[in-house]
Amino acid sequence: MNSIVTVEFVLYLVLIMGIGLYFARKKMNQADFHLGGKKIPGWALALSERATGESAWCLLGLTGFAFAAGLSSVWIAVGCIIGITVSWIWLAREFRKERDKYDTLTLPDYLATKYSSRGKFIRWFSSLIIIFFFVLYVAAQFSGGGKTLNITFGIPVTWGIVISAVVVIVYAMAGGFFSVVWTDVLQAILMIITLVVTPIVALVLIARSNLSIASALSLAGGGLDSWTGGAVGFAAGTLIFNNFSWFFGYLGGQPQLDARWMAMRTDKDVKIGAAIAIVWTLLAYAGAITLGIAALALFGSNAVADPEQILPFMLMQLMPPWLAGILLAGAVAAMMSTADSQLLIATSSISEDIVHKALRKDLDDRKLVTISRITILVVGVIALLMAFTSKSLIYTIVGWAWAGIGCSFAPAVILSFFWKRFNARGVIASLVSGFATTVIWMTTGLDAIFTARAASFIIAFIAAVAVTMLTQRAET
After folding, report:
1. Which ranges of 106-229 would DSSP assign to H, the alpha helix?
2. Domains of the chain
3. What long-range pairs does 449-452 form, CB within 8 A, spacing at least 24?
4. Residues 107-156: pLDDT tens digits?
5. What is the pTM of this model?
6. I want to staple 285 with a disulfide (CB 3.0 to 4.6 A). Which of 77, 150, 181, 299 is the partner?
7. Does the CA dihedral 242-94-470-113 come out positive or negative?
8. 123 φ, ψ to 5°?
9. Taking Cα atoms as reference points, which of 118, 91, 101, 95 lies closest to residue 426?
């Protein structure tokens, strides 16, 4: 491995560790540690939200999926872009307003406080959903870091996972939400540079070499040159819908994204953030899909054994060492930008929702922040151990978490914002049915027929509305 790449990467790790340690010096209360105390500008929260939302799933998972599936992967991008746009334009402002109205720090805290007649159950159950799925999610991010370090530096995957985990755990423990957001800003910039520069270089090389993307897709077989993956009729519609279904998870059901909207200072910050986030998303998804498809033309369908290694492979093949080092840092940044946020959200569910609120422990801010830091360490170690044992692809694990968390919470969030008759029992119906549907779909193989991301959302939404209408008198 070229020493320039190694030096650049080490400097990057030192920089983000330094950011974390810098904020550790600041005196913080519980609100500062978990939500920034309304001290962070909207543009920074927008970049943090995008870096958190995309992660290793976009740079490694989606590029790998495009490399393996071809043109049909575009429907994932369409679903995600529409979901992100809808959430920023119609939901972000509501999150900020509701946070102020109910003086809450977390999504479970908001739902439990607003619907206090069943607040205890809502707080406990929603916190357990978050903890269960976010440990899986963090493990997926650590796994993504291990893969990237393996193909880049030849480090064994196990040691790559350890390095990734240690860096994330240390800076998240040190500065809480401040460290997470400001490191995310750096990571969002690196990620978008990687997803814009690499596809452009690949397309220029394809043009200069007189290669044909269309021919490469056709030669690869397996329906890679078809917008429906070679499927026709009902099967084609199912494939498009299943890929598009990532849309549902963005509709207010992801606590790590909701936290950025809850942290917004004013509606003006939300408006600025929305513009930045939507443009970033359009560039990132176009780049990820283009990169995966361009790799087929340049290197063929057998370029890598693991499709999720196609991005680091391309960077090492196409870029001069000094640029490869910078862009590879962007690949690892994708993992870290989500892992740190997942750690913080899981921590807030334990320290704020369970210890502070559910168990009613009357602790001062200093003790609560200490508990939060210890919890980050414990959750991080558990996720690290799971990353060692899990053989699932990043794409698969994130799909699990996206359905289990996003599609359990999203119906409850939407209805709480826009339906005045919505009640506590409806919230419980959404959470329980969404969680149960995800587990059933994923463990019985139904997900291969009709995606859990859509099934969980649809069933949870119907259950929430039906139960609310049937129990209105009991709730009034």
Report:
1. 107-114, 119-153, 157-208, 213-220
2. 3-389 (1.20.1730.10)
3. 449/238, 450/238, 450/242, 451/241, 451/242, 451/245, 451/399, 451/403, 452/399, 452/400, 452/403, 452/407
4. 999 999 999 999 999 999 999 888 888 887 788 778 877 877 776 677 88
5. 0.86
6. 77
7. positive
8. -65, -45
9. 118
